[in-house]
Please model this.
Amino acid sequence: MLTSEAFGTAIRAHWQTENNQHWLLDTLFQEDKQKMYDEDGASILAILRRWALNLVKLHPAKTSQNQKFNRACWSDDFREEIIFGAGQKV
Model:
């Protein structure tokens, strides 16, 4: 049987993960400022944002995710490295 303390801990852990991810998406992509009126477009953009975020998280560089996003914006080579992996240029 699940105790109320264990249930509360599980709920807080879930919302901590949700809040951290939302904060990161809002910081990097300005998600809260985006106006999307088409439901399909909004869901597609959400998928692409999470895909990009996961690729940046997987990159082995020891810099922050924000710095990786900025560097990917400035450098075609770094962006290719994030998308296709290190040492695998198209």
Remarks:
- Residues 12 and 18 are 10 Å apart (CA to CA).
- The chain has one domain: 4-84.
- The mean pLDDT is 82.
